[in-house]
Amino acid sequence: MEILIFGAGAIGAFYGSRLAINQNVNVSVVCRSSYQAVKANGFSIKSPLFGDYKWMPTRTFANSSDARRAGVKWDYVVVSTKALPDVSDDSELVEGLIGEETAVVLIQNGIGVEEPYAQRFPSAVILSAVTITSAAQPEPGFIQHHRFTRINSGAYPKDHEKATSKNSVFVDLLTKAGIDDASAYSAQKLQMLRWHKVAINAAFNPTSVLSYETDNPSMVQDADMYEHMKGVIEEVLEVAQKLTGSQLPKEFPTAAQILDNAKKSPKGSYPSMLADWRGQKKMELEVILNNPIQMARSKGLAVPRLQTMYALLRRAQATREQDFKSNL
Ligand SMILES: NC(=O)c1ccc[n+]([C@@H]2O[C@H](COP(=O)([O-])OP(=O)(O)OC[C@H]3O[C@@H](n4cnc5c(N)ncnc54)[C@H](OP(=O)(O)O)[C@@H]3O)[C@@H](O)[C@H]2O)c1
Predict the structure, then answer these.
(1) Spans in the chain with pLDDT lower than 50
(2) Beta strand 125-131 with 51-55: parallel, antiparallel or unpaired?
(3) Which of 53, 108, 214, 298 has minimal CB crowding within 10 Å?
(4) Ligand 1 centroid to 251 CA: how many Å?
């Protein structure tokens, strides 16, 4: 089996290194700024669960053109770039890598991330995956896995035999590699999980940036911030249920449970959007805030909390970029 990870950063390299443990599975990567380091030495992974280990991908490519030239028939192309439709349409970048038997697996946060792939590759199996794993790549080729491993995946936009089979093989490879809580969801349940994850991301990520870099436990211990974040989560979940016409599954944590759980998170743990903000990188504002806003609006639903955070952060990001350019 041949798997290609497009955008092997924290999440892509972590899951790639696990998939590669399976016998007869080759896992290759497309890297960008980490290319030289990964090509020379592979990845070093530090994990509280799996220990410290090294992983040399089967092939390391500097870009998708090089990957195309290799002429491999990929069984899975896993896209784990940051979802930044305001920067690039990554579905275009994987063009030429998706054959008749290739399933595209999107391990990304956000709403609407699948649609460009479904449009561009109408006959390909598209799998949508949501993870709560916390990981980072503090230096090129070094992956720090912090905690959690859970990943759920399901077909997009709907279930059919080929997609279900591709999905269950992918999940099996993960479980055999020690990701015990990998599991396959129906297409509909997966979309609800995506909304649920976005509700969490929309509450924690923008709030940390806008409150001058507050960590997770401090945000939920502050009564005013708690109320704001509870409002955000409930706003998103309400819209999600109206848009999808389905109820939130009972096992999905409520807003209060999510926030109470976060009280136990380690001091100094921050949402990943803050790392992007600190690193002068683009934040995933479009898929976490704007796509849900646009979808809600198209059905006449109001999302005032999301709209306010989007307006403030989009402007802050643009001003920061302007300042950066004028200081060059
Ligand atoms: N990290 C987490 O704990 C976590 C948890 C849950 C979900 N997620 C989600 O998972 C997705 C991936 O996040 P991440 O934290 O793994 O991001 P990341 O560490 O920034 O990894 C993305 C990687 O993709 C590479 N890349 C981007 N465009 C590329 C291109 N055109 N060609 C080749 N490589 C390219 C980036 O290279 P450069 O270094 O050159 O930019 C980077 O190495 C995001 O949607 C995120 O929200 C992350």
Answers:
(1) none
(2) unpaired
(3) 298
(4) 29
